[in-house]
Amino acid sequence: MDTSEIRNSKFKIRNPDSPIGIFDSGVGGLTVFRAIEQRLPNESLIYLGDTARIPYGVRSPATIERYALECATFVQSRGVKAIVIACNTASALAANYLRSQFELPITGVIRPGSRRAVEKTRNGHIGVIATEATVGSGAYERAMLAIRSGLEITSRACPLFVPLAEEGWLNHPVTRQVAEEYLAELRSSRVDTLVLGCTHYPILRPVIEQTMGDHISYVDSGEAVADEIAKLLEERGLIRRDEQPRVEEFYVTDSAERFRRVAELFLGRPLESVVTVKLGTV
Amino acid sequence: MDTSEIRNSKFKIRNPDSPIGIFDSGVGGLTVFRAIEQRLPNESLIYLGDTARIPYGVRSPATIERYALECATFVQSRGVKAIVIACNTASALAANYLRSQFELPITGVIRPGSRRAVEKTRNGHIGVIATEATVGSGAYERAMLAIRSGLEITSRACPLFVPLAEEGWLNHPVTRQVAEEYLAELRSSRVDTLVLGCTHYPILRPVIEQTMGDHISYVDSGEAVADEIAKLLEERGLIRRDEQPRVEEFYVTDSAERFRRVAELFLGRPLESVVTVKLGTV
Q1: Which domains, and CATH codes, for chain B?
Q2: What is the pTM of this model?
Q3: Is residue A149 within 8 angstroms of chain B, CB to CB?
């Protein structure tokens, strides 16, 4: 994208009528998009899915930081008023770094999800399931212990959950068997609250609930983030006032058609515009 | 990499003593590396694993072509005398494109594997298992039918095999169940030869053989490619004559440590040098 395009962007930076920028490594962040759309139905939304480089969850911290910077730079170039990192891995590894690089308000999914989990737990034992990179970062533990010390937190990486969700095996015997194996330790622990610490996991929630039982409270970070961004915009006087219809734009780094197919199933409606873009300098 | 580094590269282009360049989306191409090393033990080898962007098998043709071009450009810059595309997906989608862009001899894995399968089959029914992108490209069908018309070819994408292999679940009940499901149709067909059309799959060969039975001939493209590159170098007078010890260099686009760990297990020996590099313009 050249600078003239940026200048001609239809939104002015930090204008309440500017859109919110949301990015994820792929389609999983649409769970966050949908929650924000439901919570703030008048806001214009820009979504970027870095589908050419998904999955982030198996990459090194340095690579995740670089990819997140390129995604944030792109959504900023679309003139957004705030950025939502709708990806647990990028939130865990790059949120602080991005806050140091941009003047825009930036919300990740870790802190809002952590706050909600700490509110929900009765016995102080919280479980977190997430990608290898998110678990390895210790970001949920740090965020939750900063809110309340003395919590007992058990984390488990579930690397096959994303490929199983993308294969569409949502209620398949294999997925149930993988869930049995990944969740065995959590099930036999005293955990009363489980954080679905990857935006793909809400799609597998029925199998996860079946395996863990119904005495557990589940935290889906999408809803927590929607509340967070609403609060943040209100505090800064950035709630959209324009009575014109809101705008929504979808950008991906790989095939627009493939994304459109999955995203339309996901959101339950047709998408007007999905554009493929190139990112960064890698 | 800047041009001075290229100039200072220790190898001269098209010199028989120059190394062979091998690239893959990740660690899977080491099955090809090992086969070439065994077939041509005096050759210097440069290996590039594009681990920051693995897996290629779920990406669009345009993205795969771009990634393959960036990988080939990098190994060329190391002064290689020939390039081996040790990735079925990149071979299927980008081999012809790369041949049009470089003057070096370039070998993919599809044609050698296809030739071997056609030699092995007794009844003319051949099975191919591969990534979604490789199956979608029809490259194996085209290559085999060009060698012998009238073959009956059954292809099946097995998207979970790569994440299962990377999870290390090589002989796990879940992997057996996934294999049962993916291979059901092939098992009940008249296929007498099965192409393992992804360089990760030889790692799962015990489970695949257990599921398909021992009346099937298996084609591992690594060995086929090693024969192909040996023939190609002989024909062009490019077999290494230097009596100094051969050189080997490993490059990756994500964490060198993670690659080193898996690669050492894979090759059964320590690696001298693994270097992280940045590729291309995305």
Answers
A1: 3-108+224-276 (3.40.50.1860), 111-221 (3.40.50.1860)
A2: 0.86
A3: no
